[in-house]
User: Which sequence fits this backbone?
């Protein structure tokens, strides 16, 4: 099952003092599941906290740390697996120049099933609390070949003493943020391969692992690898891929088990994002795309073709978007048709027209709902988010909150393997219907931890007295944006 995380993360420099104003927790979480034969399957959680979102306290002269209380529960019917731990940040002596994040890792033995994971995190330095819940599925058919979830990690070491999260004799530092900047030159990962002995009594089997483009599922030609393993109850794949020449984009890392006829028996994948502006690749040669008797032959008006190519922008890769924008400036009708057909046949090989028509219906919907006097709905921020991520599960729509500009908070229970994600939109003139995106915690989208200052600048103005560390004005009657964001309903 594909895990989709479509967002970009950059850890922002944290500048605050130990006695500065209240912080608001900002946790990021990833889960991976495993199933060693003969044992109960288990879920590992990696929970990361940005430095700027926690409160440091002096516990000895000149020494500071933050302490978090983490309560985790997995519920299935009447069954509950529960843990409560205290997590201390690394000790620092200078709280004026902090960056990065710190991580909590835990393991939970859970039989196959669908669980509601409930997470409650309290900053002991200020009493602030964040509650998150989402669904986790453990699904390993008994005695059948399977690939575990894929763990992206930053580093690993030989375990001198086994911990609760030791795997195959190694301890790993998970990469909770699946983003690789231009300075990153390799993608390191770990996966487990189960029950290959159910394929054959002896001998070897083939494992393939590769990178494919997320938007089109097309294989990145220079990033395909194979490895042979002896059949066994369990094998581990611990390796890395050189990504110096991988262009910017959204990708899946895929791991497959294959039999001797090269047929895929089972697979798993994980999403990651790459920023590498110094490297690019050319679009597939469209001259070889045969569009005879396809749906695009009926789209022969140049302005219509240009419009349909522009519609694709929210769901296009960077390369596709640049190519399409250059193509609409021409009068090359045939290449436009070839591009449009190639775009949808790559995504939906069996039913490209159905996929195209379904997307057109979504575009018509956002044009009707979110259009402004200045732009059609698909060109607006809300239209972009709707087309890219789908309809939100909940919408908070506040148009007359005292002191606030009209704002909306869109809540998604799940965006692939991201959970409890939000988008905040605001407008200074409701009559225009032009709500601008001012913050999201989805990787790759605008992340502005001071977004509440914008919402309430209607009465407080746009000048902030407490510097870069200020994230909110003092609590006041009728101010609900922070509560709606932390506890959507």
Assistant:
């Amino acid at each position: 099952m594909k895990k989709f995380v479509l967002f970009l993360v950059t850890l922002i420099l944290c500048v605050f003092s130990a006695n500065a104003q209240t912080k608001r927790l900002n946790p990021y979480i990833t889960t991976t599941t495993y199933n060693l034969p003969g044992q109960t399957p288990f879920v590992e959680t990696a929970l990361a906290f940005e430095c700027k979102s926690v409160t440091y306290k002096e516990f000895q002269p000149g020494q500071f740390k933050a302490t978090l209380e983490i309560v985790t529960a997995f519920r299935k019917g009447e069954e509950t697996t529960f843990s409560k731990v205290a997590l201390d940040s690394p000790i620092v002596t200078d709280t004026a120049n902090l960056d990065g994040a710190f991580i909590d890792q835990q393991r939970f033995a859970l039989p196959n099933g669908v669980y509601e994971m409930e997470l409650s995190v309290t900053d002991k330095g200020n009493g602030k609390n964040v509650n998150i819940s989402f669904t986790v599925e453990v699904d390993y058919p008994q005695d059948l070949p399977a690939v575990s979830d894929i763990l992206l990690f930053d580093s690993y070491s030989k375990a001198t003493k086994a911990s609760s999260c030791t795997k195959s004799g190694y301890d790993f530092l998970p990469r909770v943020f699946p983003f690789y900047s231009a300075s990153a030159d390799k993608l390191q990962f770990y996966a487990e391969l189960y029950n290959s002995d159910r394929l054959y009594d002896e001998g070897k089997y083939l494992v393939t692992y590769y990178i494919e483009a997320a938007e089109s599922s097309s294989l990145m030609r220079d990033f395909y690898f194979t490895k042979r393993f002896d059949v066994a109850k369990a094998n581990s794949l611990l390796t890395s891929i050189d990504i110096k020449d991988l262009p910017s984009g959204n990708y899946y890392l895929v791991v497959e088990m294959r039999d001797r006829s090269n047929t895929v028996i089972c697979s798993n994948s994980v999403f990651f994002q790459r920023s590498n502006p110094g490297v690019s690749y050319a679009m597939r040669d469209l001259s070889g795309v045969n569009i005879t008797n396809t749906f695009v032959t009926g789209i022969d008006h140049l302005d219509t073709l240009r419009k349909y190519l522009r519609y694709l922008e929210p769901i296009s890769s960077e390369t596709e978007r640049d190519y399409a924008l250059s193509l609409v400036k021409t009068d090359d009708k045939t290449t436009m048709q070839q591009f449009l057909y190639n775009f949808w046949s790559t995504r939906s090989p069996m039913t490209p027209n159905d996929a195209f028509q379904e997307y057109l219906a979504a575009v018509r919907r956002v044009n009707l709902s979110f259009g402004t006097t200045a732009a059609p709905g698909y060109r607006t921020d809300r239209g972009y988010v709707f087309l890219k991520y789908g309809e939100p599960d909940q919408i908070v729509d506040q148009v007359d909150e005292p002191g606030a500009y009209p704002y909306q908070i869109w809540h998604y229970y799940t965006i692939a393997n991201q959970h409890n994600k939000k988008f905040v939109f605001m407008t200074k003139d409701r009559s225009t219907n032009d709500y601008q995106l001012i913050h999201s915690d989805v990787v790759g989208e605008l992340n502005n931890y001071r977004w509440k200052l914008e919402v309430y600048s209607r009465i407080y103005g746009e000048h902030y007295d407490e510097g870069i560390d200020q994230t909110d004005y003092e609590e006041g009657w009728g101010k609900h944006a922070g509560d709606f964001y932390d506890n959507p309903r």
